[in-house]
Every structure is written in C-alpha cells, then in structure tokens.
TrEMBL record, chains A, B:
Record family assignment: Belongs to the group II decarboxylase family.
GO CC terms of this entry: cytoplasm
Modified residues (N6-(pyridoxal phosphate)lysine): 323
Keyword set includes Lyase: yes
GO biological process: one example: gamma-aminobutyric acid biosynthetic process
Residues forming coiled coils: none
Essential cofactor(s): pyridoxal 5'-phosphate
Disulfide bond among keywords: no
Name this polypeptide is given: CLUMA_CG021259, isoform A
Keywords, comma-separated and alphabetical: Decarboxylase, Lyase, Pyridoxal phosphate
One MF annotation (Gene Ontology) recorded for this entry: pyridoxal phosphate binding
Domain of life: Eukaryota
InterPro entries: PyrdxlP-dep_de-COase, PyrdxlP-dep_Trfase, PyrdxlP-dep_Trfase_major, Pyridoxal-P_BS
Amino acid sequence: MTSINPDNYKLSDKTANLTAHEIFPFSETAQPETREFLQKVIDILLDYVNACNDRNEKILDFHHPEEMKKLLDLEISENPAPLQQLIVDCATTLKYQVKTGHPHFFNQLSCGLDIVSMAGEWLTATANTNMFTYEIAPVFILMENVVLSKMRQIIGYDGGDSILAPGGSISNLYAFLAARHKMFPGYKEHGPRGLPGDLCMFTSDQCHYSVKSCSSVCGLGTENCVMVPSDESGKMIPSELERLILERKARGQIPFFVNATAGTTVLGAFDPLHEIADICQKYNCWFHVDAAWGGGLLLSKKYRNPRMSGIERSDSVTWNPHKLMGALLQCSSIHFKEDTQQDVTCQMKLPTVALTVKKENERERKLKNKIEIFFQGLLLSCNQMSAEYLFMTDKLYDIGYDTGDKVIQCGRHNDIFKLWLQWRAEGDAGFEARMDRLMELTAYEVKRIKEQSDKFYLIMEPECVNVSFWYIPRRLRGSPHTPAKVVELAKICPIIKARMMQSGTLMVGYQPDDRRPNFFRSIISSAAVTEKDVDFMLNEIDRLGQDL
Amino acid sequence: MTSINPDNYKLSDKTANLTAHEIFPFSETAQPETREFLQKVIDILLDYVNACNDRNEKILDFHHPEEMKKLLDLEISENPAPLQQLIVDCATTLKYQVKTGHPHFFNQLSCGLDIVSMAGEWLTATANTNMFTYEIAPVFILMENVVLSKMRQIIGYDGGDSILAPGGSISNLYAFLAARHKMFPGYKEHGPRGLPGDLCMFTSDQCHYSVKSCSSVCGLGTENCVMVPSDESGKMIPSELERLILERKARGQIPFFVNATAGTTVLGAFDPLHEIADICQKYNCWFHVDAAWGGGLLLSKKYRNPRMSGIERSDSVTWNPHKLMGALLQCSSIHFKEDTQQDVTCQMKLPTVALTVKKENERERKLKNKIEIFFQGLLLSCNQMSAEYLFMTDKLYDIGYDTGDKVIQCGRHNDIFKLWLQWRAEGDAGFEARMDRLMELTAYEVKRIKEQSDKFYLIMEPECVNVSFWYIPRRLRGSPHTPAKVVELAKICPIIKARMMQSGTLMVGYQPDDRRPNFFRSIISSAAVTEKDVDFMLNEIDRLGQDL
C-alpha cells in the first residue's frame, strides 16, 4: 500500500508558513524555499506514480458529490494559504482522484500514465509558452514540424500540413472548416448566401458526436448532418451513403463532406475507407477520416491493414496521440493532404508593408493578399485573420514558421513536447510493439471471455481494443440468449458499475447503443495492463455481480 | 549564471541505458529507476526555474530556424532512445527555449512563471484525467464549480453558469454559440433557413481577432461581423455602434450580438460598457464582454471601476486567468448570466430511459427532451449531443455534475487545478495586491518615460498594463513630433526588436495599429517584474537603439 496520506509531507518550519508572495518570482532571494516547496510537491507526485502502478491500491475512493464536498476544503478565503496548506491540498486532491493510470482502469479511451509523456508535460508547464510564434517557442515549433510531418508520412500523405488541436472534436472542426473553405471559398466572407442549396455532410450513426456538433457550431444545422446507417459490426454501409447523397441531391442540397470513422468510440469499428473514398470521388465530396481513436494502429504493420487501408486517399485525418499512443491529455492532431505552407523553408522575406499608415481595410487587404499569394495555403487562407500585432511581416526571422494565423485559437497550449519526447523514447519500433501488445491483450481478453461463456457473452469480435460483452449472473446462466434475457443483462450493468466504483477495485464502462441496451465496453489502451489484469477484470466483475 | 548545461544531469549507470519500456508502467518492479529518471527531469526544471528568476541570465539564445535545426537533434529514429538521452533532450530544449518567466520579458499578454500555478500544472499532468464526467474527475469538477461560481460573483452575476475553455478564442466562440441558440433556438437544427435576414454581429475595430473569426467559423461570414470605429484611445464609439446597427437593420439584417472589449490587445483600452449595454437593451442584442485580457482587474477595488463598470449587465464574459492573473497557459473561462443547471444540487435521478431498446431517433429525442426539461439550461441545450456512451442517465451519481455535454469538446484538459491552487495561495487579498502592483509598476513606467521625454514618446496614458511608446534615437531628438518623424520612429522598432532578440537581453513587442505605424507595446503582467526591471527595459532599448 502506498496510499497518499496528506500528513506525510512536511515542509521545514521556515518554509511551511511562507506564502506564495514570499517565494519566486515575488522574492528574488527565496531560491532555497522555492526549491523546497516544489520538491515537496514532486515527492507527492512520485508517490502517486507509485500508487498508480501498485495493484494493491484502490483505483478510487468513491463519494457522492455532496459527501465529497464535506470531505474536502475547497473554499478560497480572503487571506493567502501558507505553503504547507498547499502541500496538504495537493496530497488531498490526489487522495480522492481516480487513478486513470492504474492497471485496473479500463474505463476510457484515454487512460494510462505514460512516464515519459508525463515528464514531458512537466517540462511543458515549466516552459509555459504559447505556440503561436517561433519568436517565443522556437524549439517546440520545430518539434511540431518534425512530428507532424512524420505522422503525415505514416498516413500516406506526400507533403500536406497539420496542426495540434485541443482534442479530437476541435480537430474534426478544423477538417470541416478547411473543406468548406476549399470548396466554397466565398463562405468565409459571405456565409451561405448565393449558394444554390443547403450544404450537407455525411457520417455514420456510430460516429463520434463531435461530427454532428460541427454541423451545429458551423451553422449548417444538425438536420444537414446525415447519419448513414451502419451494419451489425458498426461499419458505415457504403451503399447507404450513396443512396443518402443522391436523396439529398434530389432535394437540391449540396453534399460536400463525408466523415469516415477509423475506430468508433463504442464498438471500435472501422468504416470501409476505399469504398467511401470512391463515393467521395464520384460525388466530389471532401473525404475526412476521424481516426482519433484508431489512429495509433497506423503504427503497426500487423494491424494497420485492412483496417485503415485507403486512409491515404483522404483529404484530412484526425488522429489523437492521447488515446492509443498513451500521450497525456491533451494531444490531438489534424492532418491535411493539401499543402499549406509551400515555402516554409524559404528564407525570403515579405516587403515590410506594415510600416506605412493606411486605412485599415486597405492595408489589411493588401497584407492578406500578399500573404495568400506567398503561401497559397489552405489552412492559413481558411483561418487567418491577420492580426498585425502578432503576425507582423517585418520580423527578424522567417514568419513561415509562425503557426498562429492557421488556427482558430490565439493562445495555443504546447501539446507537442510530451509527444516528441515520448516518440524519441519509444522509437518507431517501440510504438509499434506497444500497439501490437495492446491488440494481443485484447485477443487474450476475448479468449478468456469465450472460455468462460457461462459467465460472459461476447457481443462481437473486436477490431480494436474495445471489447463489448455482457456479464451473466448466476441466475441467468445456461438459459438461451433471448431478447428478454438481454434486457435483464442490460439492467445489471449499471449495478455492477456502481459496485465497482464503491469498492474502488475496477473501472469498466458500459453504455447502450442503437442495436442493444446497456453492455460493458472494456478498453485496453494503458501500457500498464497485463494478462493478469485482464483476468482480474473478469474475475472482479464476476465477484461483484454473481448475486444479481 | 545558472544556465542549463545538458552535460550536468547524469543518471546512474544502471538507469542511464534503460528504455521507456523498462520503467513504469511497463515494468512493475522498476520503481527506483522510474523515480530516478523523474527526479533528474525535476532537477533540470528546478534549475530552469532558477534561471528564469536570475537577472544575469539571458532571456533567449536566438537562432534562425535553419540554424536552430542544425543545433538540435530532433529526429525520431527506429529504435528507442535510452533514458539518459531523454534527460539530455529535456535540458537542451530548455537551453534554447525563451524564458517567458524572466523579469525582462515584457513581450506577451501571458507571461511570467507563477510557481504555485506551475506546481498545480505538474499535478494536473500526473493526475492525467478528463474533465467530462464526475466519474473520473470528482475533485476537479467540484473545484471548477467553486472557482467559476466565485468568478461569476465577482463579475456581478447572480447564479449563472461557466466553463473553462482552451483559450479566449474558443471562449468567445462559446458566447457566440449560446447567444445564437438563445435567440434563434431553431438554428441548431435548421441553420439560417427560415430567418428573415442575415444575422450580424458587432465589435470594435480594436477587438481581438477571434471575434471576427467566430463569424467565419460559425458560418455568418466575416462581412456580417461589423467593425465599429473606436476613438483615439481605442474605445468603441457607442454612437457609431448604434448607427451601424440601424444601418444593418435597414438592409434587412438581424443584429443579435455585440462584443465589447474590456482591455484591448494592443492599447489596453476598455469599451464603455454601460453605454453599450443600453444599446444592446434597446435593440435586443446579446451583450458579450471580452475581458480575456482586462478581467484580472475585476479583482481590484481600486482599478475595477470605472474600467469595467457595467460588466454586470452583460449576458456573457470571457476572462482569461492565464493573462493578468498569471495562471499557466492554458486557463480561460467563459461565464453566462443565465443559469444552465438549475438543479445541479438536486440528487434526484432521471428515469433510466437508456435501458430500453428503441430506434435511435426516437430514443434520442426522448432522452434529449427529458434532459432539457430537467435542466432547462442554455449551455447544455446549446451544445449537447447526448452521447449515450458517456452521459448515461442511469449512473451511480447525480449526473448534473457531468460537464461534458455542455461543451463542444469531448476530451477537455483539466485547467482548473492550477487556478484553484493559485487562488488558495493568493487569497482574494493576495490577488488584489498582485493586480494593484502590476498597475503601480505600469504607472512607474509611464513616469520614467515622461521623465526621459527626449528619448521616449508616450503615445497615450494607459488604462491597463499595456504601455505604448516610441523610442527616439539620438539623431531624432529635439525635433518636433511630425508625421514624417513618426515614420522614422516606426522603422526603428523592428530593428531594435531584432537586436533585443540577438542580444538575448530583453523582449518587448511592437506592432502597427489603425492610426499609427509600428510602435512598442510593453506588457507588465509577470509577478517577477520590479521597478529596476522597468528601468532596465528603457535603458536597454536606449543602449540598443541610440546609433539608429
């Protein structure tokens, strides 16, 4: 047992009663006290890392929100809290936090606690910079170029452009915006006016909800986000896609964007990319692949195909390293086949147009035209607002390295360092082995479920690390698998989940889908998991549920 | 001198050659080696913290991108890098990083390196969770409630709702989306169809560019984002706002959203909120205040008014603690006057509708109606997509605490802990003193500029910590301040900036604006800055520029 005990972390008497305004950066001379405080925080974090890797530790100490409020002292008072109180606060917070890195946490697509990625995120915090310009993030901007270019090569793009975004939902939004801008360049300025019909987009009924959210955010309206039926295994049915495109066209609408999912959230299904690519080509639609979840398998020669065969034909790909690859949250990327910054390596400078005083519109237009002609890039042309206070053209260095005007954020968190460091640490071979290992463990889980078919019902053979199953309590064993029985099995899921959380021993998710009521979905995406943890999961569900 | 030397950080022979797959979480038994590796990273970070607080240190070691690529080894190879290489990589990265926390960094709105906030961000990384459900982020969700509710009280809202977003641009986007949904509830589903005219929005020509970006992202078209002229000091002219609203109405358009800026990016100007509120009331427009930059001054009794008098009349406010308040990037918040989750404290549970198998549309509609009726909330109603795998209604705990369906992200980074911990550390009194101190230092800078009026030209009296000025090199001293002279002064800015970066001694920004060519804009938002640093800034500019 290595549980975090807030009483265990004592600062020296001298430091304990100082306040934040008495250490760095307020006090120049407080180097020893600053270091002592930070080292004590690190002692807590290192103990927490141990706890996350200790199978005897609970995953969580569950309390309902109202109880939790009584256990914690969260209030902020008029006066500063001394440093010792902050140390206690840190320890208490981790005492009640859910250990998402614990080997018995199978609950979420993003889980695990990768040590190198974590070290990277610590450094990121300390570097505390913004990714919008080379001026203040030189090394990180270059790392972003190296890693994103590598990811595009892995996808199968020759050239292209990419950006890191705060999560897969925003990445999908970027794809949508780029598609709309590419196909309807006047939309940025004029909106839908002048178009002969409503734009519409297509995605499977198994897609991530952020795709539908795009249609709402971007003003299309969710009714213009067409949900294409999927088959039994959760894959989009291409003939249905074509039928629905034709149906919408017949109504006078303009199909322009198709989202295929490579690794659906619940079932882990892969849409048939080649067939969807053919349809996109035929009907002149932008072809986006949401591989936020499945993307990691691109790194595996064994598992990449046939799952993602055809991804190289897409126009854009979302791929979240914070999922299968185990990078810390947040780390999401969006990749485009089309070049944005063709001249990024060119040291040539723009004329210093910003030096002359003119009316805003005239200057802005002139500057924008110059930049657009210079770069002729999609992402920049789509999202740039040419803020002159940030993206001046008369800077010391080649402004082709500034990324800020390509994105819809201004401040942008540094999400690259942790990924770059982790990739250095793994090497391509290490990442491949990691992906293969997750799939092997998944196969082991499936095998164990099948071997215990009295207690567990496997819903389908998984293509990814999502395993969908029901637990069969003692009273229901041996009877035929009827719809009535399924209703009973479904009722059991939330009860077992509640017991898991209350006992603190295990976390596995459940949910209904379009074809069936509640079922368990376990996820193996943490590098901490081993065969014995898979066995523990199944045994523990059985222990918690056999009386139901 | 405390420069980071990558050769100084040696792991023991035993640990140095291990790879990432030989420590936690891959190897259960590698606790000592894991700890040694992490502690060595921390040694580097603690040295970097010292370097940031050492006035004898350079801020940066500038190299052009192509040179920098030669200095760094950024490539990722087939094989894993040993742990010692990763340690060298961390140190090298910081060696070439710009010290945004250095007392001589006056370059960006977000700068400084707050020690408590940094400690908070380290813990956040280690907790590595997602803010979408209470299930996996119980303590952090409760902290978010406490802090955001406090922030709304400070704004002057009674009740209301808030969310943390990845940066001010996305916060402004949330305000826009909520406004559109509130005023045109059918838009989410149907888009603009059926509306009698184009929607249009208003903001000053000094606003942050993300406001205009909203109009592009959300499909209005940038031509429907009307730029209202500002006066000499950078404040929106209310009579111009009214004139433009009437003009657009006369064209058959529908004005619905007005953005006022509380602290503009370049000049630090505050729009007249009461007068804008009156106009919004008169023409039934949503009144949003972008206080991303100026928001921190809400904490100061001395400086809050008159700058932000009237903010309590707004419908929504963007406020970035990662700016004046010194929280680490990213930490941005958006606040709404209207309640979202009226019943958040109610422990009542929804009926478990998700248990029955029905066709998707029917079930989805039913579930959505129930949730909407239950919560009757704006943010939820605006953004929810009711993903059943995540936001099930048959959970163990009160799902009113889950935030995931209120936001357009799915995965959401934990941005609250660092802010909560910092506010605990400061107390209300400490934060107020901090704000007052930044303003005092700004007044000191203005005084010193005026005392050296031969060398510096103050462009205007600042309202915030932005100070706008020109440096006057020797050859131009004493001559009248004519437009021709201004053109000369403007040409000097990029040259001095380039010299600053090359000497590595100072970072101050420059830019043109609508009324004038390039000028310097210094920012005092770092708690590290003292009067002697302000003097250093002015002296160093003089040293670098007097021969020009």
